Each structure stands twice: as C-alpha cells, then as structure tokens.
Amino acid sequence: MVSVPQVLTILGLAATQVMATIDPSLAKTPQMGWNSWNNYACNVNETVILDVANAIVSSGLKDAGYHYVNIDDCWSVKAGRDNTTHRIIPDPAKFPEGINGTAAKVHALGLKLGIYSDAGTNTCAGYPGSYGYEQIDAESFSEWGIDYLKYDNCNNLGLQGNATVSSTRYKRMGDALKNVSRPIFYSLCSWGTDDVWDWGRSVGGQSWRMSGDISASWDSVVSITGQEVPIANISAPGGWNDMDMLEVGVKNSMTNTEYMSHFSIWAAMKAPLILGNDVTNMTSDIKKIIANKEVIAINQDPLGASVLQRWIKGNTQLFSGPLSNNSYVALFLNLGNSTATMSATWSDIYNSTTVNSKKSIPVRDLWEQKDLGNSKGKISVSVEAHGVRLLKLSGRA
Ligand SMILES: *[C@@H]1O[C@H](CO)[C@@H](O)[C@H](O)[C@H]1NC(C)=O
Ligand SMILES: *[C@@H]1O[C@H](CO)[C@@H](O)[C@H](O)[C@H]1NC(C)=O
Ligand SMILES: *[C@@H]1O[C@H](CO)[C@@H](O)[C@H](O)[C@H]1NC(C)=O
Ligand SMILES: *[C@@H]1O[C@H](CO)[C@@H](O)[C@H](O)[C@H]1NC(C)=O
Ligand SMILES: *[C@@H]1O[C@H](CO)[C@@H](O)[C@H](O)[C@H]1NC(C)=O
Ligand SMILES: *[C@@H]1O[C@H](CO)[C@@H](O)[C@H](O)[C@H]1NC(C)=O
Ligand SMILES: *[C@@H]1O[C@H](CO)[C@@H](O)[C@H](O)[C@H]1NC(C)=O
Ligand SMILES: *[C@@H]1O[C@H](CO)[C@@H](O)[C@H](O)[C@H]1NC(C)=O
Ligand SMILES: *[C@@H]1O[C@H](CO)[C@@H](O)[C@H](O)[C@H]1NC(C)=O
Ligand SMILES: *[C@@H]1O[C@H](CO)[C@@H](O)[C@H](O)[C@H]1NC(C)=O
C-alpha cells in the first residue's frame, strides 16, 4: 500500500504543506453512500431519511460498504437564518427533532449522516447558503453530529473565473471544518469550475465534482466519462474526482447493461459511489449491480489509482490500471450500438512495450464472478452494445 506522504510525493506536493489541510483517514478510498436528491429532490424529511437508512441496513448495502446517508438541498427554514444566533434553522416540519435528532437515529444504525450547503448566499433551491457564515455553520454541523458536507456552487456572487477566486471561496469552509471538533468529510460540489481538480485538495476537499450535474441518461454517463479521462490520474487516497451521484436504478432511466457499465466506470475510475435510487424499493437486478462486492472492491482497492484510457478503436475503448497485491484491472467498454469483439495485448493493458508477451496470467470476470482461466499475451472478449467487461488480472506481465 502506498502511504499518504508517498502519494503526495507522486503528486509533486510537499507532504508537510498538504498534511495540515486534509484528514486522510476519511478519504483513504472513495466515499460510499446514498444521497436524497435523485429520488426525492426537495421532498426530504426525517421519515424519508430513516426509511432509507433502515433499508440500507436491511438490504445488505451497509455491509457492502455504503455508510453515508446524505440529506441534499431543502432541509432548512427557507425564510432565513435565526436573527439572533445567525444559525441555519432545520425545518421543524421536516425534521421535528432537529437534524441532531435524525443524526442520533442514523448513528444508532451504524451509519453516518451527511448534509448539504452552498458556497454562496443561497443554495440552488434558494435556502440559506453558508458564504460568510462558514464558521457558524461548521459549528452547527459538528454539534448536530454531521459526518459529511456536500458543498454546492449556486448563487456564488460571481466569485469564480479563476482558480484563485474559486479556491478562496471553498477554502473558507475547509478552514471552518478544520476548526470544529467533529471530523466532517468535505465534498466540493463545484461542477469542475476553474479546474477544481488542481486545487480541491489544497482547500481541504476530499472529493470534488469534476463536471456539471449528471442526469439519468446513458448520454450523460458517456459525457462525464469522457470529461474524466484526461484528469483521471489526479484521484488518489485523500482526494477523489467526483463524477457525481449514481443513476443506477433511478426511474428506469437506462437498461441493465447500461447501469452495469455506469457502475463499472465509476468503480474503476475511483469515483465516489453515492447511490441515488430508491433503496426502499429496489428490484433484485438493481441490488445485484450496486451490491456486487467484487466490483466494489475495485473501487475500494487500497492503492487508490484510477484506470486510465489506453486506446480508442472505433466505438470501443480500453481502460486499465493497477490494483494492490500486484493485480491489475481491465475495463473493456463498447459505446457502439451492436456487440463488438475487443482484443487487448499485455502491452496495451500494462501500457508497456517491454512486457513479457508470453506470460500466462489468471483472469477473473468480475460481473460473472467467474474465473476465466489463464490468458497468455492477450485477452479477447465479446462486449454487448453499451456494455463492459470488467476483468481482474492476478499478476503483471
Ligand atoms: C416525508 O416525505 C415523503 C416523500 O416526499 C412524503 O411522502 C411524506 O408524506 C413526508 N412525511 C412527512 C411526515 O412530512
Ligand atoms: C429574520 O428577520 C427578518 C426581518 O424581520 C424576517 O423577515 C425573517 O423571517 C426573520 N427570520 C426568521 C428565521 O425568523
Ligand atoms: C437536539 O438538540 C436539541 C436542542 O439543542 C436538544 O433539545 C435535543 O435534546 C437534541 N436531541 C438529541 C437527540 O440529541
Ligand atoms: C482572478 O480573478 C480576480 C477577480 O476577477 C482577479 O483580481 C485576479 O487577478 C485573477 N487572478 C489570476 C491569477 O488571474
Ligand atoms: C475557530 O473557531 C472559534 C470558535 O470555536 C472561533 O472563535 C475562531 O474565530 C475560529 N477560527 C477561524 C480561523 O475561523
Ligand atoms: C496526469 O497526467 C498529465 C498528462 O496526461 C500530467 O501532465 C500530469 O502531471 C499528471 N498528474 C498527476 C497527478 O500524475
Ligand atoms: C416499487 O416499485 C415498483 C416498480 O418497480 C412500483 O410499481 C411500486 O409502486 C413501488 N412501490 C412503492 C411502495 O413505491
Ligand atoms: C503509457 O506509457 C507512456 C510511457 O511509456 C506514457 O507516456 C503514457 O502516458 C501512458 N499512457 C497511459 C494511458 O497510461
Ligand atoms: C492482498 O493479499 C492478501 C494476502 O492474500 C489478502 O489478505 C488481502 O486481502 C489482499 N488485498 C486486497 C486488496 O485484495
Ligand atoms: C446509437 O444509436 C443512437 C440512436 O439511434 C444514435 O443516436 C447514436 O449515435 C448511435 N451510436 C453510435 C455509436 O453509433
């Protein structure tokens, strides 16, 4: 396993300079959980959050690694802050026992609670934002028992346009979170603005959205994947490019094949795995996808290196990357509308011209959960339209 100082050295950063701004223990691997927005939008309340939290436990998703239950926008009193304390007020109709009451119940299930705010005057739905009130809000979140903050980018007073201006705005909350007693995961939702992947880590961010919002469609999955390709090498333990919430199982938006591709790409690119579907009422097909332990293990591999794109041939693309224990993962992606046969040599997969092209290496299909036997020098697979094959290779050539 690569230590945090080693990773920082690889990133060309002085360890001492950065150690103070991140709490690496919260982000050793990409975060996993659920967020309310995709399924409930503004219609969130304690009942919904507890129903979801209970379902995450009873369905086995907690055991599969999903630990954060994140409340998105619309949880507070829209009219404004408390005029005396200047604190944001949880909506008493939606959260009758306060956010701290909900947090206590979520924690009792062995899960963590996330909340949402905005690096601007108001959230995207028009509720109070935290700009100018960072320390007050960080203190509220800490007192309430919050474990995770998703921090959006709406109504930001135009304080963007270059990395200095954007990072200064996001650093205010990063500093405030470092100044409270509770460790709180800091998830920047800045839509890739001003190349956040270059400065997200330095403002205390543990993940940062690298694109605009995902929508529940295959085209959106393909578009975000393309945007991630050139910056995929930036993700590393301590900080991750966030490709946005999963749309797997959201409103029958894609075929099962497309959902599996979406999940595979997010897993192999080390994106946070934040579910968005109604986990209280899932089909067994959907549950099988999001709870596949071998695919999740690729995402949570301690080495924390994203797959990189090795080539594009027509509608097909090869991605691969290292795993711990000397293993490797290869992702064969077919964006075309008909089945394709894809072949990759060891030099393709291991991205080296000096490989032992005769070497025999055991290969496992992670979706079929089946050993395919040993391959020698290359792999050829048939890949469905809009599908993937996700293979683990136990060794290096
Ligand atoms: C909570 O929200 C759900 C989903 O929007 C809604 O059906 C339910 O009536 C709400 N419950 C309360 C107590 O507000
Ligand atoms: C704070 O005061 C303003 C002006 O009087 C009022 O409009 C607002 O509703 C008050 N906020 C709350 C949360 O009561
Ligand atoms: C939540 O905070 C309120 C106000 O400080 C307090 O009265 C209540 O006991 C707290 N609830 C829990 C479960 O801690
Ligand atoms: C960034 O933008 C701000 C405000 O527009 C400007 O004052 C500053 O000079 C810019 N910085 C850089 C490095 O371009
Ligand atoms: C840290 O928090 C304390 C209150 O707990 C506050 O007085 C202080 O100004 C904060 N420091 C910064 C740098 O915001
Ligand atoms: C990522 O790769 C690009 C070239 O594609 C390179 O310029 C950059 O330094 C790399 N970044 C890291 C963190 O390795
Ligand atoms: C559960 O989902 C099915 C469709 O998959 C739907 O027909 C049914 O109404 C849902 N049940 C509830 C309680 O939402
Ligand atoms: C493959 O390796 C070469 C150097 O051998 C490097 O320049 C290139 O960036 C690598 N490509 C990928 C996708 O890793
Ligand atoms: C690496 O191998 C060791 C020994 O077989 C095993 O205990 C460990 O779980 C493996 N780690 C991963 C991430 O597969
Ligand atoms: C697949 O079919 C869709 C719908 O007909 C079309 O829009 C798209 O361009 C096709 N994709 C490819 C890669 O041919």
TrEMBL record:
- Please state the span of the N-terminal signal peptide per the UniProt entry: 1-20
Locate the transmembrane regions by residue number: none
Q: Which GO terms describe its molecular function?
A: alpha-galactosidase activity
Task: Spell out the reaction equation it catalyses.
Answer: Hydrolysis of terminal, non-reducing alpha-D-galactose residues in alpha-D-galactosides, including galactose oligosaccharides, galactomannans and galactolipids
Entry EC no(s): 3.2.1.22
Q: Which residues form the Alpha galactosidase C-terminal domain?
A: 314-393
Asked if Cell cycle is a keyword of the record, the answer is no
InterPro entries, alphabetized: Aldolase_TIM, GH, Glyco_hydro_27, Glyco_hydro_27/36_CS, Glyco_hydro_b, Melibiase_C
Q: What class of enzyme is it?
A: hydrolase
Q: Which Pfam families match?
A: Melibiase_2 (PF16499), Melibiase_C (PF17801)
Alphabetic keyword roster: Disulfide bond, Glycosidase, Hydrolase, Signal
Q: For this entry, list what GO says about its biological process.
A: melibiose catabolic process
Family label: Belongs to the glycosyl hydrolase 27 family.
Q: What is this protein called?
A: Alpha-galactosidase
